[in-house]
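Standup notes, structure subgroup. Blocker cleared on the flavin-adenine dinucleotide input:
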Amino acid sequence: MKIGIVGGGFMGLVLAHEISKTDATVKVFESDSQLGGLATHYDYGSFIWDKYYHVILPTDEHLVSLIKDLGLEDQLQWRRSMTGYYVNKQFYSFSSSKDFLLFPPLSIIDKMKLAFTIFYGSKINDRKKLERITVKDWLIKTGGKRTYEKFWSPLLIAKLGESHERVSAVFIWTYIKRLFQARSSAAQKEHMGFVKGGYKTVFDRLEKLLIQKGSKVITKTNVTDITENPSGGIDVAYEGTKEHFDKVIFTAPLNILEKVSGPNLVSISNGKQAVEYLGVICMAIITNKPMTPYYVLNLADKEVPFTGVIGMSSLVDIEQTDGKYITYFPKYVTSNHNYWSKSDDELTSIFMNGVQALYPDFGAEHIVSSHMHKAFKVQPLQVLNYSDIIPKTTTNNPDFFVVNTSQFVNDTLNNNSVVSHVKDFMKDFKKELAPTK
Ligand SMILES: Cc1cc2nc3c(=O)[nH]c(=O)nc-3n(C[C@H](O)[C@H](O)[C@H](O)COP(=O)(O)OP(=O)(O)OC[C@H]3O[C@@H](n4cnc5c(N)ncnc54)[C@H](O)[C@@H]3O)c2cc1C
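Run returned:
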């Protein structure tokens, strides 16, 4: 059985890794010059680290199990992490039970309401009900308006930008389950992890294992057409060539699927509303002194041009980043945001003004370099009744499958869900992909 996988991001490669354990042969097509998609690496001059920030949580059981399966367990490192809030021009830690009790922006009553929302949210099992109410309405209903404005709203803005009011309560439910369980119950302190060398280590290992199994992984290869072959199977067109496969699995975002496959193969929105994606504009700054003690700083300040501050070097030892500190400043934006029409220099100047306002003690002498990263299709927006508008894994053709992040209905966008999604797919379709085993 010959299987083609379109997309050499984490989904495509994890899928290829699992399929390569069967008798099937796999070929992965990646349009970019390097593997990894949104989780790819970047050369920051004197060291290589993730283009966008990535962290592993102790609750990421599927991801941790994959890392062990790849033989990278000894490269997985866990560190104590801190979360901060910037409210009323002040920084507050929100990293332990003590911080929670002392958090000045919320009164004791607000804190009780907040604790109730987290406890109540973590006990909910019926996603469908949460899909019918907006996250804002649900949070205000369970925890009150003040708790929403002072605590939840900055966190939602950091994750979803201005679109946060349009998503359903599923978003915060999955977030509560994933993030608040990251605190170890014994110490009630957060711990987060990363693989030594960043995600490059993971992609390098995946690629090496795939090649050892006889699979092919090709970069700089843009798939332009996916069509059904009248005698069965699927044809994939790329770079002036057409190649036949018994089965093809598509893993890239839905706008690409629309472009490369015809309606005969897959009807993406089934005549309903289309899945909308948020993009991210993210400045990374390399400095010669630490910028922030927090891994995540949530910002409750509409004047700041980005939606959060991610202090990667608060987790990763600076020996891994050539003795320098790396901090990311992301902003999640819709596809019609005016930031997309700005040049990198213009965006850098806007973001740097925000950095100056937050960290006035930071001067040009502390900044080694700055890098502006942009990705147009990142986070599928989990709007009301989202599960009704996503494409199914199976399509109009039994040899063509769609396996991508738009299909996450019980989770936010993260790599643990990628691994779990691949495992579910393999459970359902392994026999069809590799009938001999
Ligand atoms: C700012 C940011 C922070 C994040 N933080 C975390 C985190 O802390 N923890 C975590 O677990 N996850 C995090 N994530 C999410 C994580 O990056 C994603 O879960 C993961 O990268 C999704 O992988 P994917 O393969 O599904 O999609 P993608 O990475 O989008 O991969 C799709 C691939 O398809 C390729 N492609 C597109 N069109 C074609 C074509 N026509 N032909 C061939 N190839 C094509 C693309 O180039 C791309 O490589 C973060 C993401 C971002 C953007």
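Discussed briefly. Residues 415-433 form the longest helix (19 residues).
Next: hand off to the docking folks.
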